Amino acid sequence: MIVQDKCVLITGSNRGIGLAFAKEAHRLGARVIMAMRNTDGFTQDWFDERVQLIQLDMSCAESINQFMQNSVLAQVDI
Fold first, then answer.
1. Contact (Cβ atoms closer than 8 angstroms) between residue 54 and residue 34
2. Comparing C-alpha atoms, which of 64, 24, 19, 21 is closest to residue 43?
3. Is the pLDDT of residue 62 over 90?
4. Strands across the sheet with 7-11, in order?
5. Which residue, 53, 1, 43, 47, is CA-closest to 26?
6. Per-residue pLDDT for 59 more than 80?
7. Interatomic CA distance for residues 46 and 43, integer angstroms
8. Nearest residue to 31 via CA among 19, 49, 14
9. Is residue 49 over pLDDT 90?
10. What is the reported pTM?
């Protein structure tokens, strides 16, 4: 899949497969929106202006509803 210049939303992106996918999408030139339960203090050495962190707890209806109101969703391609 070609992701260069696309906006990719990845949930659970602070560890495991989600984090690996975020790194690879970024390496391939995508703008990456990393959604995770807790964004406090989360950073990686590869972060730049193409990485955005968003708080999202998929086990909490209120968190999901707040996320769905976020204007960043209009920018998501994948």
1. yes
2. 19
3. yes
4. 7-11, 31-36, 51-55
5. 47
6. yes
7. 9
8. 49
9. yes
10. 0.89
Identity of the amino acid at 3: V
Token pair in block for residue 76? 């998501």
pLDDT at 71 (0 to 100): 84
DSSP string, the chain: ---TT-EEEEETTTSHHHHHHHHHHHHTT-EEEEEES--TT---TT--TTEEEEE--TT-HHHHHHHHT-GGGGG---
Look up residue 28 and give its amino acid: L
Chain centre distance of CA 74 = 14
Question: Encoding tokens for residue 75?
Answer: 């920018």
Angle subtended at Cα 53 by Cα 77 and Cα 12, rounded to the nearest 5 degrees: 75
Encoded tokens for 1:
């899949």
Residue 73: predicted pLDDT: 87
